[in-house]
Amino acid sequence: MSLQVRDLVVEIDGTRVVDGVSFDVPDGARVGLIGESGSGKSMTALAILGLLPEGATATGSIRWDGRELLSLSDRDLAALRGDEIGIVFQDPRTALNPIRTVGRQIGEAFRIHEGAGRREALARAVAEAERVALPDPAQIVRRYPHQLSGGQRQRVAIAAALACRPRLLIADEPTTALDVTIQAEILDLLRALVVDDGMSLVFITHDLAVLSQIATDAVVLDAGRVVEQGPLSTLLGAPHSPVTQGLLRDATATVWRPGGRS
């Protein structure tokens, strides 16, 4: 399966926030969407899954495994989310339901997409909690989000997103709300899970240093438009766009390992 975005335009109440964006995510690729706040990267991701805010419209083409997503019904898109395409949001405090145990939230995908009963879903949630290295999985699935640390909540969100082994994961700034040490742990976890499962990845960030740790290719956005794209090693070594050059200057002021990872 592969993702193809062509001439995507997103408008909110008549204001164009994504302007003709095109890129591909081949099978198994790890592609970063990077840009400053307001560049259109998150709106692009939300358009892929039909999660745009009220008042927003999307035109152009978004094809997943040959299917045009922009023409799918809400019901068909709901069936796609969590099954074929997973998403992890920036802040698990708002992404997770505060009045449901984390086990119920991880297991929900099994109940929706695979028809699992409550007991089976909980047992599988324990296994998924163990997979993302949560401590004492059998006990932690009985807790509520507010009883966990920020890093643990994000691991829960990752477990929920990957429970049904989607072929594509969209990660929308999943480490921004975490401190540097926990951020590194979450990046390592995400990279390992994506590689082990052979998933494709769209990783959204404003930080080129973070992107270098997980992506192999990058699409640089500014004011809703693509200003540069290609292998991340090329963008790091010889960026052409002033926007990319500015992101690189900002990145070199942070702790990172030049050249990223393969």
Automatic annotation (TrEMBL):
Keywords: ATP-binding, Cell membrane, Membrane, Nucleotide-binding, Transport. It is found in: Cell membrane. InterPro entries: AAA+_ATPase (IPR003593), ABC_Ni/Peptide_Import (IPR050388), ABC_transporter-like_ATP-bd (IPR003439), ABC_transporter-like_CS (IPR017871), P-loop_NTPase (IPR027417). Residues 3-248 form the ABC transporter domain. Gene3D superfamilies: P-loop containing nucleotide triphosphate hydrolases. GO terms for cellular component: plasma membrane. GO terms for molecular function: ATP binding; ATP hydrolysis activity. It is a peripheral membrane protein. CDD domains: ABC_NikE_OppD_transporters (cd03257). It comes from the Bacteria. Signal peptide: none annotated. Belongs to the ABC transporter superfamily. This is Peptide/nickel transport system ATP-binding protein. It comes from Microbacterium telephonicum.
